[in-house]
Amino acid sequence: MRLKDQKNSEQISKLFDYIESMKIEPYSLQMYMGTKEKRVRHELEEKLRAKDNEIKDLQEKIKTLDPEGVKLNLIVCGSNRELKSFISKLILNQSERRSELSSECVRRDVELHGRLISLVELPALFNTQLSEEEVMRQTHRCVSLCHPGVHVFIIIIPDAPLNDEDKAEIEEIQRIFSSRINKHMILIKQSSEHQTAELNEETQSVIERFGGRHQFIDLNTQVSVLMEKLEQMVEENSGVCFSTETLMETQMEKLKEFEEMKRKIHLLQKQGND
C-alpha cells in the first residue's frame, strides 16, 4: 500500500512539473511572436520610408518636366497704369521701354532663379469706359490666363495718401472678386523712403484688410526682396490659388444675393398693395 502511495506521489510530482512547463511555453511563444512582430514592423517602416523618398524624387522630376508645377502666377492691379507697368517691369526684369496702351489682358512669362513667373496686368476696373459685361469678361480672362489660378494679386498705389480713385478701384476689385481675394492680396506702395510711419489711417485700414501684407518699393528696390515676400504668401496659402472656378462661385453667390433681394422687395411691394 505504501509502495502504491509512493508511486502516486511521484506521478503527482511529475504532473506538477508538466503543468509548470506548460506555463513557461506560452510565455516563450509570446516572446518569439513579439520579436517577429517587431522585425516585420521594422521592415515595413523601411519600405514605407523608401517609398516616401521615391515619391519625393518623382515629384521633383514632375516639377522639372512640368513648368506649371512651379509657376508663380501674379496679377498686378491698380488705377495707375504707369505704376502697374513699373512694377511689372521690375518683377520681370525688363528694360524701361514704353509698352503700348491696351485695355486687353496680356500674359508675360519670364524665368527667374529657376522659377517660371507669369504676370498679367489687370485693366482699371473703376472709372472705365467698359460696360459691366466687358469688365467681367476682362477679369475672367485675366484669371484664366493664370492657369491653374492666381497666387498673388498685387495692388500698387502711388507715393501719396489714397485718393478717391485709388479707394474706388480697391472697392471695385473687392466687389468683383469678393473677400476671398483678401488672402491673396498684397499692397505695394511707391515710396522714396521705406518707412511705415508714412502710412496714413486709410492706407493702414486697407493693409489690415489684406492681412497686413504690404511692401514699399522704389527704383532701388531689389526684386529678390519682393519675390521673397510673394513666395512667403504662397507658402502661407499652402499653394492654393484664386482660380476661375473661385471667381465663378463668387459671381453665383452675388447672383443669389441679388435674386433674394429682388424677392424681398417684391414681397414688400405686395404687402404694401394689400
From TrEMBL:
Among Pfam families, the record links this protein to:
AIG1 (PF04548)
The record ties this protein, via SUPFAM superfamilies, to: P-loop containing nucleoside triphosphate hydrolases
Give start and end of each AIG1-type G domain.
Answer: 85-255
- InterPro entries to which the protein is assigned, alphabetical: G_AIG1, GIMA/IAN/Toc, P-loop_NTPase
Q: Does the keyword Zinc-finger apply?
A: no
Q: Which GO terms describe its molecular function?
A: GTP binding
Alphabetized UniProt keyword annotations? GTP-binding, Nucleotide-binding
**Annotated family:** Belongs to the TRAFAC class TrmE-Era-EngA-EngB-Septin-like GTPase superfamily. AIG1/Toc34/Toc159-like paraseptin GTPase family. IAN subfamily.
The protein's matches in PANTHER family, at most eight in alphabetical order, are given as: GTPASE IMAP FAMILY MEMBER 7, GTPASE, IMAP FAMILY MEMBER-RELATED
For this entry, the protein name equals: AIG1-type G domain-containing protein
Report the source organism: Cirrhinus molitorella (mud carp)
